[in-house]
TrEMBL record:
Keywords on record: DNA damage, DNA recombination, DNA repair, Endonuclease, Exonuclease, Hydrolase, Nuclease, Nucleus
An example Gene Ontology molecular-function term: endonuclease activity
Superkingdom of this protein's organism: Eukaryota
GO biological process entries: DNA recombination; double-strand break repair via nonhomologous end joining; interstrand cross-link repair; telomere maintenance
Compartments it resides in: Nucleus
GO cellular component: nucleus
Entry protein name: Protein artemis
Pfam family, one: DRMBL
The family this protein is said to belong to: Belongs to the DNA repair metallo-beta-lactamase (DRMBL) family.
Domain DNA repair metallo-beta-lactamase: 138-193
Coiled-coil ranges per UniProt: none
Amino acid sequence: QKEDIVVTLLPAGHCPGSVMFLFEGRNGTVLYTGDFRLAKGEAARMELLHSGTRVKDIQSVYLDTTFCDPKFYHIPSREECLSGILELVRSWTSLSNFHVVWLNCKAAYGYEYLFINLSQELGFKVHVNKLDMFRNMPEILSHITTDRHTQIHACRHPHDDDWFRGNRLPCGLTCLNGTPLHIISIKPSTMWFGERMK
């Protein structure tokens, strides 16, 4: 037997290109998520989840997510996280030009929202190792740089944590014009957040 099925890709909000799959066929509708990050109300604005004025009837949801675990019961919203990080970065970098922040980002993608908002709010570009991985995301290119002389870094090194313990950034920078840097590290990680007991 053959059956026609319509497959619709919906934005998952997880990292660039991440999607959820909506399968619609004669026997019903199924949503398969993968990892996703949607704020309250975002799904209500997805036109492709609606039929006319009402939400489509979905018979089954396959929730394939890293965070389907009680220890992740409360994950702060993206806005709450950004607000806290902005407050910390602003207070630290305002102390002097030698006070810098290292964003300890373990994955290659998924931090674009953070980089863009920090750059817009604070007026610093974010130092990254290479720009080529962001070439297809033109909205971020004016907010990142390969110039190490900035106060916000998201550069990477195979032994990041060891380098940071030596009071140097993963790019190797330890001082600016002969003055030692004062470095703090921020780890924007839901996984790390969830593994903490307090």
